[in-house]
């Protein structure tokens, strides 16, 4: 297994923990197994226990509010971290995130997300690492080690079988035992055994007919008994829906609180003997063990780690390193000295999707936009023109602070007020953003209406557009005239979907540049959702769609190089719902094709966290996959396009040419669930290998700016472990980074009776200057070579001769070596 660090910190002995449990009343014990509120567990000063706070999530630590005034570092999407194929990079990211968690006085981070890329339509695909269990395990474990080395508990989630989002509270993932063990449980197992993770989050869904918060076989049996997990199993938020079954099923803590199913009903169940008090004692012991680890028990103190000074620079470097050069005819890297004008085009060039939607969202203090990043990278000698080209965003951009004034204090921003049913103002605050999200704890008790007031000063005379967003009822007053807009979500709408992808209504306003428009919005959501969300957006007068596209083509024609940035948005890639198809939104494809036809030096940048179809990929000079790159995204892209940094990423997932080719595509439930063996029990490249179709880009693919020769491979070892030494040479004229990949192939395409033609067994990232020869060493442990034998319920290796295939990607294998196991 990969190397591990044992968390330093403040482990409590079982004796100490049991002694403390024995001092607690039953009521006190039960208070520790339910959230005190949305994000914390209560204190019990009598035994020296202080409050323990948790926060999302994989792209940064948001904190206990969702508020633009409480900012956090925004990291590249987890898919990007995986694309670096480099546990050291992820460990550093984890450490920085853990350190900021400490800065916010939070003890537990609700990350990483390790569900697998089963269907590319999965809404949280961007938030998970890869389609491959080994790559996912290595990246996740390094991330966990990084977080926990800052003295913060990591929470690996969502245990297990939570590969899609639609109907996620109820669907049943039907998974055979071997696939469960070898694929879906594997990252959790490595995180427990090697990463020593402190928390596991149980998922909303069922596995094989039992909901995961009640799934005793997997939680008590596999996770706790078999793997020896001694930390806390925390439920996903509101996933606990029963009293006895969830208590017996192994869930330790139900979040958030208060909940109607634990608390009083659980107290009654223990009193009446339906739940043994010993079960609760075990839960409490685990909570106290965690409290000791994070320093909120007794005379321990939390770690004093603080966010390192190089955090922002590191985020910039990671995002650049993770970008994947999918294709390049030599146009990249751009030689700035030979350019006089670059046309920057595209909806995502103007509005970078720095992150996806859902609970992973954080509020960064700034995002380096693409125009900003490119201007800096190209230098003053190169003119940069900017054209949107296509309107693909369903919601308009948030109000910019340059045009929004709080009518009360005259400062840049908006006024938010909370009113009760009689119109009394219960609270009032100055806000800096026009997308607002509130947890119940952040709204004054008794408030039923949220009012936003702002004076908007347009910069261009003509038809400007305001949009109003939210799942509820709005009274919108513009310069004294009021209208009602009812966007109340229909009965049965998923709460997260309603909040993350709210309805939007556009209002055209004939406005004069410099003359403020007074806007006031009264929003009533009703109480059906646990969060409230509303937003206002704005667009300057626009050309028609056709004229905008023509303008982009003209800009491209007049430039030396066109850079077209297309991609998704955070209401396409989000928690709470799956995507409906893989196409880029709106007229993006047409935009790329027409620009490429006008300028042969067209570089396409795809700003997305999960696969999209790129039907134009062979018609353009270069394609850079930029992911959802986080707050430094524009700067990282500037570095990559100009060659300051090599785009060192490799695809962690197979990218299809057509939706029909994708082995596991649909995310619709069949008979209440998902049959994980729908076409085969394989996913990702293992499933692609069984079909006829070739993907657009294979697993592991990524070019770079230099060339590599694979000169030789030597293998030592046997079934107990292999050491593979790969000699590679950088044969290009610049330094570069290579990810040498090792796959195991069987002679007849089956492994122990199951079709599985090829499997990733190891990889190593190496940096080398031009002309250098280096040896990449890949260690492969016994488990990676073993299979789960269902009959014997054990890991076994099938003796025989196997072929190791070594290369740059699954589509570019360079060397073979036979091994006998
Ligand atoms: C998500 C979790 C998240 C939790 C708290 C849930 O909806 O599935 O990943 O940690 O909310 O925000």
Features of the shown structure:
alpha/beta, single chain, 821 residues, globular, six-stranded mixed beta sheet
Question: What global shape is seen?
Answer: globular
- Provide the helix percentage: 10-25%
Radius of gyration from CA coordinates: 27 Å
Q: State the separation between the terminal residues, measured CA to CA.
A: 18 Å
Largest sheet: 7 strands, antiparallel
Q: Determine the strand fraction and express it as a percent band.
A: 25-35%
Structural class by sheet pairing and helices: alpha/beta
What is the tally of beta strands? 39
Heteromolecules bound? beta-D-glucopyranose
Poorly predicted runs are 1-8
Secondary structure topology:
Layout: H1 14-22, H2 26-31, E1 40-41, E2 52-56, H3 78-83, H4 87-103, E3 108-110, H5 133-148, E4 153-159, E5 172-174, H6 177-184, H7 186-193, E6 199-202, E7 206-207, E8 210-211, H8 216-226, E9 232-235, H9 244-248, H10 264-271, H11 277-293, H12 311-322, E10 324-328, E11 341-345, H13 347-350, H14 370-378, E12 383-387, E13 397-398, E14 404-405, E15 414-419, E16 425-431, E17 435-438, E18 449-456, E19 462-470, E20 473-478, E21 481-486, H15 495-500, E22 504-511, E23 517-524, E24 532-539, H16 545-557, E25 561-567, H17 588-598, E26 602-607, E27 622-625, H18 633-641, E28 673-675, H19 684-688, E29 708-718, E30 721-730, E31 736-745, E32 750-751, E33 754-755, E34 758-768, E35 773-781, H20 782-785, E36 787-789, E37 794-796, E38 801-809, E39 812-820
Parallel strand pairs: 2-3, 3-4, 4-6, 5-7, 5-28, 6-9, 11-12, 11-25, 25-26, 26-27
Antiparallel strand pairs: 1-2, 7-8, 10-27, 13-24, 14-18, 15-16, 15-18, 17-24, 18-23, 19-22, 19-24, 20-21, 20-23, 29-30, 30-35, 31-34, 31-38, 32-33, 36-37, 38-39
Helix pairs in contact: 1-11, 4-5, 5-7, 12-18, 14-18, 16-17
Bound molecules: beta-D-glucopyranose.
Beta-D-glucopyranose binds at residues 56-57, 110, 157, 236-237, 359.
């Amino acid at each position: 297994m990969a190397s591990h660090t044992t968390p330093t910190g403040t482990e409590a002995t079982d004796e100490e923990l049991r002694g403390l449990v024995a001092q607690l009343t039953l009521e006190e014990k039960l208070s520790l197994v339910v959230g005190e509120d949305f994000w914390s567990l209560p204190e019990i000063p009598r035994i020296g226990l202080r409050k323990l706070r948790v926060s999302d999530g994989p792209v940064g630590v948001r904190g206990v509010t969702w508020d633009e005034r409480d900012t956090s570092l925004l990291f590249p999407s987890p898919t990007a971290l995986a694309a670096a194929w480099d546990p050291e990079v992820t460990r550093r990211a984890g450490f920085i995130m853990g350190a900021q968690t400490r800065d916010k006085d939070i003890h537990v981070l609700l990350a990483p997300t390790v569900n697998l890329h089963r269907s590319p339509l999965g809404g949280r695909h961007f938030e998970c690492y890869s389609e491959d269990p080994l790559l996912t395990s290595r990246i996740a474990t390094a991330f966990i080690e990084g977080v926990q080395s800052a003295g913060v508990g990591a929470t690996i989630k969502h245990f297990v079988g939570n590969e899609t989002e639609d109907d996620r509270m109820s669907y049943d993932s039907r998974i055979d035992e071997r696939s469960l063990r070898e694929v879906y449980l594997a990252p959790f197992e490595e995180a427990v055994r090697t990463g020593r993770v402190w928390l596991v989050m149980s998922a909303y869904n069922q596995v094989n007919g039992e909901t995961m918060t009640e799934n005793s076989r997997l939680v008590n049996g596999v996770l706790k008994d078999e793997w020896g997990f001694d930390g806390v199993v925390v439920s996903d938020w509101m996933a606990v829906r029963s009293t006895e079954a969830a208590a017996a099923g192994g869930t330790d803590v139900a979040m958030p609180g208060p909940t109607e199913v634990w608390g009083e009903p659980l107290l009654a169940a223990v009193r009446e003997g339906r739940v043994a008090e010993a079960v609760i004692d075990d839960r409490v012991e685990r909570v106290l063990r965690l409290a000791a680890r994070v320093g909120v028990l007794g005379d321990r103190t939390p770690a004093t780690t603080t966010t390192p000074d190089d955090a922002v620079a590191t985020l910039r470097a990671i995002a650049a390193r993770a970008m994947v050069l999918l294709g390049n005819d030599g146009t990249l890297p751009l030689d700035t000295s030979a350019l006089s004008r670059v046309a920057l085009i595209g909806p995502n060039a103007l509005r970078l999707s720095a992150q996806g939607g859902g609970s992973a969202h954080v509020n960064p203090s700034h995002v380096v936009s693409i125009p900003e990043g490119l201007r800096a990278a190209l230098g003053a000698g190169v003119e940069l023109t900017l054209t949107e080209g296509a309107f693909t965003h369903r919601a308009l951009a948030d109000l910019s602070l340059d045009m929004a004034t709080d009518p009360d204090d005259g400062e840049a921003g908006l006024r938010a007020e909370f009113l009760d049913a009689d119109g009394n103002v219960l609270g009032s605050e100055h806000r800096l953003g026009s997308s607002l999200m509130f947890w119940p704890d952040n709204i004054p008790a008794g408030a039923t209406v949220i009012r936003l007031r702002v004076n908007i000063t347009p910069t261009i005379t003509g038809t400007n557009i305001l949009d109003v967003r939210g799942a509820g009822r709005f009274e919108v007053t513009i310069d004294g005239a009021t209208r009602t807009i009812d966007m109340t979500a229909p009965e049965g709408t998923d709460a997260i979907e309603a909040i993350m992808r709210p309805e939007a209504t556009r209002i055209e306003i004939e406005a004069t540049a410099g003359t403020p428009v007074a806007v006031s919005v009264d929003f009533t959501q009703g109480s059906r959702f646990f969060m409230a969300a509303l937003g206002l957006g704005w667009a300057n007068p626009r050309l028609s769609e056709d004229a905008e596209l023509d303008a982009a083509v003209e800009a491209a024609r007049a430039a030396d190089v066109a850079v077209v940035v297309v991609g998704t948005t955070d209401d396409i890639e989000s928690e709470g719902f799956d995507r409906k198809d893989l196409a880029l939104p709106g007229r993006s494809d047409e935009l790329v094709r027409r620009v490429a036809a006008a300028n042969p030096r067209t570089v396409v940048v795809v700003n997305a966290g999960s696969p999209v179809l790129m039907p134009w990929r062979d018609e353009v000079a270069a394609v850079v996959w930029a992911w959802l790159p986080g707050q430094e995204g524009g700067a990282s892209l500037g570095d990559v396009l100009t060659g300051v940094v090599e785009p060192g990423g490799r695809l962690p997932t197979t990218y299809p040419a057509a939706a029909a080719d994708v082995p596991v595509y649909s995310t619709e439930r069949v008979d209440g669930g998902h049959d994980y063996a729908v076409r085969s029990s394989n996913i990702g490249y293992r499933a692609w290998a069984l079909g006829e179709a070739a993907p657009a880009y294979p697993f592991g693919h990524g070019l770079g700016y230099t060339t590599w020769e694979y000169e030789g491979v030597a293998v030592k070892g046997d079934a107990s472990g292999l050491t593979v030494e790969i000699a590679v040479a950088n044969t290009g004229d610049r330094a570069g980074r290579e990810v040498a990949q090792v796959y195991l192939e069987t002679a007849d395409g089956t492994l122990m009776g199951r079709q599985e033609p090829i499997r990733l067994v190891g990889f190593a990232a190496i940096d080398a200057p031009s002309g250098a020869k280096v040896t990449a060493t890949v260690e492969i442990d016994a488990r990676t070579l073993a299979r789960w034998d269902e009959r014997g319920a054990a890991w076994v290796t099938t003796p025989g001769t196997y072929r190791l295939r070594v290369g740059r990607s699954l589509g570019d294998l360079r060397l073979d070596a036979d091994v006998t196991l």
